[in-house]
Amino acid sequence: MANEEETTIIQMHHLKPAPGANKARIRVGRGEGSKGKTSGRGTKGTGARYQVRPGFEGGQLPLYMRLPKLRGFKNPFKTTYQVVNLARLVEVFPAGGELGVEELAAKGLVRRNAPVKVLGDGEVTVAFTLKGVKVSASAKSKIEAAGGSVSEE
C-alpha cells in the first residue's frame, strides 16, 4: 500500500467563495426588494421602521421628566471674597504695619487671584494700615480704635 494517496478532510474554515463569485452585501433598511424581506430588522415595531429617539423609554415617564427641576438663580457675576479675620492678622503680623493683598499672600493667608475681605473676629492690639482690601464695619472700627487706618482702593 505504498501508492496510497493522502486523503484530506475539508473543514468549515477551508471553505471560500468560488473564483469570480461576488455576493452583494445586505443594504439594511432599504425595503423588501433588497435581499430578504425585513432587511435584518426583524418584524414590525419602531426598530423595524426607524430609530428610537435618545432617552425614549417605551412610553414610561422618562428620566428627565421624573427628576425635579432646578430652582432659583445663580449669578455668574458674583464676587467671592477670601476671608481673613483680625485674630489671624494679629497672629501672623504681631508688629502690625502696612498690609495689602501681596503681603497677605506672601504669608499664605490668601491667594493673589481673588479679592480679600477682613472680618472683625478677634481683638486688635497693634496698628494696621490696610490697603486694597475690603473691610467689614466691625473690623474697621476695631482697627481705627487701635490706631490703624483703612483705605479700600
TrEMBL record:
Annotated segments matching region Disordered: 1-52
Coiled coil: none
GO-annotated biological processes: translation
Pfam families: Ribosomal_L27A (PF00828)
Protein family: Belongs to the universal ribosomal protein uL15 family.
Endpoints of the signal sequence: none
Protein name (Swiss-Prot/TrEMBL): Large ribosomal subunit protein uL15
Domain Large ribosomal subunit protein uL15/eL18: 83-150
GO cellular component: cytosolic large ribosomal subunit
Keywords, ordered alphabetically: Ribonucleoprotein, Ribosomal protein, RNA-binding, rRNA-binding
Function: Binds to the 23S rRNA.
Any one GO molecular function term: structural constituent of ribosome
Matching Gene3D superfamilies: 3.100.10.10
Record note on quaternary structure: Part of the 50S ribosomal subunit.
UniProt cross-references to InterPro entries, sorted A to Z: Ribosomal_uL15, Ribosomal_uL15/eL18, Ribosomal_uL15/eL18_sf, Ribosomal_uL15_bac-type, Ribosomal_uL15_CS
